[in-house]
Every structure is written in C-alpha cells, then in structure tokens.
Amino acid sequence: MDIGSINALMKSDEPLLPELEPYAFFDPNLKMRIFHHPLIIDVPFTSAALINARYKFKKQKLEEYLASGDYSGAIALTERPYRLDRFMDFMDDIAGTAEFCKLAADVWIDSENIHRNLDEWREVWSMVAPSNREWLHEEREWEAFQSLPDRIEVYRGIGVEGAENGLSWTTDVDKAQWFADRNTNLAERGIDAEPILLTGTVNKSDVIAYFLQRGESEIVVLPEKVALIRRESLF
Length: 235
Prior knowledge:
By secondary structure, the chain is α+β, with helices and mostly antiparallel strands. The protein is 39% helix and 18% strand. It contains 8 helices and 9 strands. It has a 3-stranded antiparallel β-sheet with strand order 1-2-3, with no helix packed on it. A 3-stranded antiparallel β-sheet has the order 4-6-9. Helix 1 crosses helix 2 and helix 3 runs antiparallel to helix 4.
C-alpha cells in the first residue's frame, strides 16, 4: 500500500466493518479510543477505512498460511497479545513434533503477560514429552542446561498475591531481584504489592525448558515441582 492510498483511506469516512466494531472502544486508562484485534492493534484509533483494508489483507494472508500449514507465518501475522491463542488453535495438529516445540518456545519467549495465561501454558507444556524437550532449545541453551546439576537452585521475584505459582524461575538471583524490585514502584503508587524474593530447588528432570534468549537464565517448571526453601521481603 503506497502513501497515496494510505492518505486516501485516512480521509475516508468509511465505517468499520460490522465484524470489527466490538474491537473499537474507549480505553479509560489511556483516555483515548483504541482498536484491539488479534490481527490489528491501533493505539490510538486512526482510521476505520485503513483498519478495514489492513484487516482484509491480513485475514486473507492468515487463511493462506493456515491452509498451507505455515503456522509460523500465522503466528507472526498475529498481534503479540493474541499469539498464544493462535498457537492453541492449531497446536493439536502438530503435537509431538519439533515444530510444536519450536513454536511454543517462540511464543513463550515473545510473551509479556505469562501470568494471565497460566492454565493455557500448563496445557501447552503438558504436551511436550520429556524426550522432546531438547527441541525447545537453541543449541547453546541445551548445552548450558546439560551442564546444570541434578538439583538446581532457582529464584523468582514476585510482588502480588498468588505469584508464587508462576511457571518462570531463574538460576540468576540478581535477575530475580530485579523482577521483585519492579514491585516497589507499584507499592509506592498505593497498589498492594511487596517485592519478595523466592528461593527454591527443583530436580533437573522436572525442568521443562531453560531459556537464555532474553538474558534471564529462565527455568520453566511447574510450580508444584519447586521445593520452596526461602521467602524474603526486599523492603
């Protein structure tokens, strides 16, 4: 789409397609009208005509990707907050494969709100057999994981009730403290939060994945597999 076409759409008074109307709303926190859809996020809301045109294009591409089995393309076409939902739409079709593991790892690493989808992620990780966990990793990650001891000390920085039950821990205590310290700002704004550092141990055989790509030395493990040995307030 060239600049001229975009300018024409921006000036158009074309209304949103009926199927898109529920995705346009006023956000009281941002104090603006926004558009939030699995294929398009527009903040602030710009042009109904432009959104319609982008949606039609992306919808057609999505159908093509899914029809051809290009699941990686389908996820890349989807806006980040909706990629887990997209993956779950077709994950049964590729269960038990290296493709399943690669896409699950990619979506996890790209996600910003893991805590909002704990049940969904438990379902995803339950579909990765221990014998297939190598497929989740880059070569350097798998080599690093192999060098870990059979019993691993792990840490998790939290600040809100129930966060002990998360799936993401780390072997890096400084990184866990950094996550915990983020909650100091919440507490200072009057939100019920307290920076807390959790320390536990986990059997290496229970670790689902060990990701290094975000510099977090991240251990993915079901919370019931972690033996909690210490809980420290960082206030």
